Amino acid sequence: MNEILVPFLVSDAVASTPLLLAAIGELIVEKTGVLNLGVEGMMLAGAIAAFATAHRTGMPFLGVAAGLGAGVALSLLFGVVSLTFRANQTATGLALTIFGRGFSALAGAGFVGIPAPALPKLHVPGLSDIPVLGPVLFGHDALVYLALAMLAAVAWAIRATHLGLVLRAVGDSHDAAHALGYRVVAIRYAAVAFGGAMAPWRDWPGPICRSPTHRSGRRT
C-alpha cells in the first residue's frame, strides 16, 4: 500500500506547488482591484525561461531567478497596457496568455525530452527517514516549502498588517484610498509585479522537460 500511497502524495505536493504560488500571486493582484487573466501566459513563459537558463548554465537557482524575471517582465507589460493606458483588463490578460503560449511553444521546441536540472531535495536527518511521513513531508525541494511559507505569510499580512489594509482599501475603493493619500496606481503596479513573480513555476523544475507545446495538444 505504501508503495502506491507515498509516490502519489509526493507527486501531488510537487504538482500543486506551482498552482499554489500562482494563486497566491493572483490573490494579491485581485485584492487591489486588478483582474489579470494573463497568469497562464506568465506561468508558461517564466517556466521556459527558467528551464532554458538552468539547462544552459547548469545552475538551477539561476534558472529560478530567470523565471522570476520573465514573470515580472510580462506582468509589468500587462500593467503598462491596463493600468497606464487603461486598456480593458480582460482583453489584455487574454492577449498575454495567448502570447505566453506561443512564446513558450516556440522557445521550448528545442528542449523537448531534455532532462531538467532539478533543485536539490532537502533532507532532515531522522525526520526524512520516518516511514510514509518522512518522504511526504521532509523530502521536497525548497520551492515546496517556500509555497507553504508564502501562503502563511500572505494570509497573515492581508489580515493583520497595515500593508494588507492598504491593499484591501485600494481594491474596495480606489477613490477613497487616493483621497487618503495612497498612490493607487503604484500600489497596483507593485501587486501586479508580485503576481508575476509568483507565476512562473508551472513546468519547472522537474526531472524531465515537458515542452510547453503539450498545452496546445502537440505530443512530446
Write up what this structure looks like.
The protein has 220 residues and is an all-alpha fold. The chain has one domain (2-213). The chain contains nine helices and no strands. It has helices at 2-31, 39-57, 60-84, 89-108, 133-138, 142-160, 162-172, 174-179, 184-198. α1 (2-31) packs antiparallel against α9 (184-198) and α2 packs antiparallel against α3 (60-84). The chain is globular, with a radius of gyration of 19 Å. The model is unreliable at 205-220 (pLDDT under 50).
Secondary structure topology:
Blueprint lengths: L1 H30 L7 H19 L2 H25 L4 H20 L24 H6 L3 H19 L1 H11 L1 H6 L4 H15 L22
Helix pairs in contact: 1-6, 1-9, 2-3, 2-4, 3-4, 3-9, 6-7
Note the main sheet.
Answer: none
Could you name the ranges where pLDDT drops below 50 across 5 or more consecutive residues?
205-220
Structure annotation, total helices: 9
C-alpha geometry: globular
Supply the helix-strand structural class.
mainly alpha
Helix content: 55-70%
Mean pLDDT: 85
Spatial gap, N to C terminus: 31 Å
Number of strands: 0
Radius of gyration: 19 Å
| Residues in β-strands, percent | under 5%
Order of helices and strands: HHHHHHHHH
Number of domains: 1
